[in-house]
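Working notes for the structural subgroup meeting. M.R. asked for a predicted model of this chain before we commit to crystallization trials. I am recording the input and output together here so anyone reviewing the notebook later can reproduce the run.

Input as submitted:
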Amino acid sequence: MTSPRKIFVLNGPNLNLLGTREPEIYGYDTLDDIADRMEDEARRASVELDFRQSNHEGHLIDWLHLANAEGAMAVILNAGGLTHTSVALHDAIKSITVPVIEVHLSNPAARESFRHHSYVGMAARGSIAGFGALSYMLALEAALEMD
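Returned structure, recorded in C-alpha coordinate form:
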Protein backbone atom coordinates (compact mmCIF):
# COMPACT_ATOMS: atom_id res chain seq x y z
CA MET A 1 0.00 0.00 0.00
CA THR A 2 1.43 3.37 -0.96
CA SER A 3 1.19 6.34 1.35
CA PRO A 4 -0.99 9.27 0.29
CA ARG A 5 0.61 12.14 -1.58
CA LYS A 6 1.22 14.68 1.17
CA ILE A 7 2.51 18.23 1.42
CA PHE A 8 3.40 19.75 4.76
CA VAL A 9 2.58 23.44 5.25
CA LEU A 10 4.57 24.72 8.20
CA ASN A 11 4.10 28.13 9.77
CA GLY A 12 6.31 29.77 12.34
CA PRO A 13 6.10 32.40 15.05
CA ASN A 14 3.26 34.92 15.15
CA LEU A 15 1.48 33.53 12.11
CA ASN A 16 -1.33 32.44 14.43
CA LEU A 17 -2.11 36.19 14.64
CA LEU A 18 -2.72 36.67 10.92
CA GLY A 19 -5.77 38.76 10.19
CA THR A 20 -5.20 41.00 13.20
CA ARG A 21 -1.42 41.51 13.32
CA GLU A 22 -0.30 44.42 11.15
CA PRO A 23 -2.93 43.84 8.46
CA GLU A 24 -1.44 46.67 6.38
CA ILE A 25 1.59 44.38 5.92
CA TYR A 26 0.16 40.85 6.20
CA GLY A 27 -3.43 41.34 5.10
CA TYR A 28 -6.73 40.40 6.71
CA ASP A 29 -6.72 36.68 5.89
CA THR A 30 -6.29 34.41 8.90
CA LEU A 31 -4.15 31.31 8.81
CA ASP A 32 -7.40 29.30 8.80
CA ASP A 33 -8.59 31.24 5.72
CA ILE A 34 -5.36 30.37 3.93
CA ALA A 35 -5.55 26.73 5.03
CA ASP A 36 -9.13 26.44 3.75
CA ARG A 37 -8.17 27.75 0.30
CA MET A 38 -5.17 25.47 0.14
CA GLU A 39 -7.24 22.46 1.22
CA ASP A 40 -9.72 23.08 -1.60
CA GLU A 41 -6.92 23.14 -4.18
CA ALA A 42 -5.14 20.14 -2.65
CA ARG A 43 -8.36 18.10 -2.74
CA ARG A 44 -8.72 18.85 -6.45
CA ALA A 45 -5.18 17.57 -6.93
CA SER A 46 -5.78 14.48 -4.74
CA VAL A 47 -3.11 15.60 -2.30
CA GLU A 48 -3.29 15.62 1.50
CA LEU A 49 -2.11 18.73 3.34
CA ASP A 50 -0.60 18.60 6.80
CA PHE A 51 -1.03 22.23 7.92
CA ARG A 52 0.71 23.25 11.16
CA GLN A 53 1.75 26.36 13.09
CA SER A 54 4.04 26.84 16.06
CA ASN A 55 5.73 29.71 17.81
CA HIS A 56 8.61 27.37 18.68
CA GLU A 57 11.62 26.76 16.44
CA GLY A 58 12.12 23.18 17.62
CA HIS A 59 8.62 22.19 16.52
CA LEU A 60 9.35 23.42 12.99
CA ILE A 61 12.58 21.40 12.94
CA ASP A 62 10.80 18.28 14.21
CA TRP A 63 8.09 18.72 11.57
CA LEU A 64 10.68 19.07 8.79
CA HIS A 65 12.19 15.78 9.95
CA LEU A 66 8.72 14.21 10.10
CA ALA A 67 7.90 15.36 6.56
CA ASN A 68 11.07 13.64 5.39
CA ALA A 69 10.37 10.46 7.39
CA GLU A 70 6.85 10.28 5.96
CA GLY A 71 8.07 10.76 2.39
CA ALA A 72 6.19 14.01 1.81
CA MET A 73 6.13 15.44 -1.71
CA ALA A 74 7.18 18.87 -0.45
CA VAL A 75 7.19 21.26 2.46
CA ILE A 76 5.86 24.80 2.18
CA LEU A 77 7.51 26.78 4.97
CA ASN A 78 6.75 30.26 6.27
CA ALA A 79 9.24 30.48 9.13
CA GLY A 80 8.19 34.03 10.00
CA GLY A 81 10.91 35.94 11.84
CA LEU A 82 12.99 32.75 12.19
CA THR A 83 13.70 33.07 8.47
CA HIS A 84 16.31 35.71 9.23
CA THR A 85 17.88 34.19 12.34
CA SER A 86 17.74 30.41 12.36
CA VAL A 87 20.81 28.51 11.29
CA ALA A 88 19.12 25.50 12.90
CA LEU A 89 16.20 25.69 10.42
CA HIS A 90 18.70 26.09 7.58
CA ASP A 91 20.53 22.97 8.74
CA ALA A 92 17.27 21.02 9.14
CA ILE A 93 16.24 21.87 5.58
CA LYS A 94 19.65 20.86 4.28
CA SER A 95 19.44 17.56 6.19
CA ILE A 96 16.27 16.32 4.46
CA THR A 97 15.58 15.23 0.89
CA VAL A 98 12.05 16.65 0.69
CA PRO A 99 12.04 19.88 -1.34
CA VAL A 100 11.20 22.95 0.75
CA ILE A 101 9.52 26.03 -0.68
CA GLU A 102 9.96 29.20 1.36
CA VAL A 103 6.88 31.42 1.43
CA HIS A 104 6.21 34.91 2.77
CA LEU A 105 3.10 37.07 2.70
CA SER A 106 5.09 40.29 2.48
CA ASN A 107 8.22 40.97 0.43
CA PRO A 108 11.14 40.83 2.89
CA ALA A 109 13.44 42.54 0.37
CA ALA A 110 11.19 45.62 0.45
CA ARG A 111 11.18 45.82 4.25
CA GLU A 112 13.72 46.47 7.01
CA SER A 113 17.31 45.57 6.14
CA PHE A 114 17.47 42.79 8.76
CA ARG A 115 14.78 40.95 6.76
CA HIS A 116 16.87 40.90 3.59
CA HIS A 117 18.85 37.83 4.68
CA SER A 118 17.12 34.44 4.67
CA TYR A 119 18.73 31.36 6.17
CA VAL A 120 15.65 29.43 5.05
CA GLY A 121 15.93 30.68 1.48
CA MET A 122 19.58 29.68 1.32
CA ALA A 123 18.55 26.05 1.87
CA ALA A 124 15.13 25.98 0.17
CA ARG A 125 14.39 24.83 -3.38
CA GLY A 126 12.79 28.22 -4.07
CA SER A 127 11.05 31.21 -2.52
CA ILE A 128 7.74 32.96 -3.13
CA ALA A 129 7.09 36.28 -1.42
CA GLY A 130 5.13 39.47 -1.57
CA PHE A 131 1.75 38.30 -2.84
CA GLY A 132 -0.13 38.11 0.45
CA ALA A 133 -2.19 34.96 0.92
CA LEU A 134 -1.71 34.21 -2.78
CA SER A 135 1.94 33.41 -1.96
CA TYR A 136 0.74 30.20 -0.31
CA MET A 137 -1.35 29.23 -3.34
CA LEU A 138 1.59 29.87 -5.66
CA ALA A 139 3.80 27.74 -3.43
CA LEU A 140 1.21 24.96 -3.53
CA GLU A 141 1.10 25.18 -7.31
CA ALA A 142 4.90 24.94 -7.41
CA ALA A 143 4.87 21.93 -5.07
CA LEU A 144 2.31 20.16 -7.26
CA GLU A 145 4.33 20.88 -10.39
CA MET A 146 7.50 19.39 -8.83
CA ASP A 147 5.72 16.04 -8.35
